[in-house]
Amino acid sequence: MMTKSELLEKTRVFLLDMDGTIYLDETPIGPMRETLSLLRQAGKKLVYCTNNSSKTPEEYIAKLRRIGFWSDEDMVYTSAIATAEYLKKYHPGKSAYILATDEVRADFAKRGVRQDEKNPELCVLAYDTSLDFVKMKKFNEFLAAGKFYVATHPDAVCPALPVSAPDVGSFIELFRCSSGRVPDVVCGKPYPVMGEALSGLLGVGKEEIAMVGDRLHTDIRFANYNQFTAVLVLSGETTKEMLKTSPDHPDIVLDSLNDLAPLLRE
């Protein structure tokens, strides 16, 4: 296992999962505001990296600002951004029917993804929290017609109170049952599409990037797939018992990201 000192010495960019990693239901985990500030003072770049494709970067920035985490030198990167970049790189100019909130669809358009609700060349499944039967039926018809199928991320549920909400992974199963199709490409964590896009954007070596998260099957697997340093925090979903039987292996395990604060103060 890597030591905390080694982690801080080699890492230039910290990719931070959010819920369960830096906050729980918008409540900061311990003295997280100070820890993030100390990381910035040490010259570390902070990238808030989330699979949740129901919100635009601007909506996340507003949330992070409200909690007291945001600094203008930080960055937000979502699975929807990774998907837009993937479409522009591998399917340039092709039109897409995008199942997403109006705000996220507008963000895809802003990023140069052409949209067509009548005869698209591609189908994109994002986390549409305004999903209704009319949208589902249309999307299913396009899948049945054989349109190339892209999903933003695979998470089956989204943490919420009082109970978790169905997420894109649940929608994937719904459309598998109705159309017989599964996505041709999934862009978010843990898959390499998002990692490759981030590596290119950040302009640093993979060995200088650390992914910090509380989920083994997304955050830690994502780091393993992309050869980033895998930092597991036990402040969210994962317990020590779960870690013992997991095929996904972190390079370092922390009770929370705040464990780095004493070293950063030195």
UniProtKB/TrEMBL annotation:
The keyword Magnesium applies. The keyword Metal-binding applies. Its EC number is 3.1.3.-. The active site is at residues 17, 19. GO terms for cellular component: cytoplasm. Keywords: Hydrolase, Magnesium, Metal-binding. Substrate binds at residue 189. Mg(2+) binds at residues 17, 19, 214. Its cofactor is Mg(2+). One of its GO terms (molecular function) is phosphatase activity. Belongs to the HAD-like hydrolase superfamily. NagD family. This is Acid sugar phosphatase.
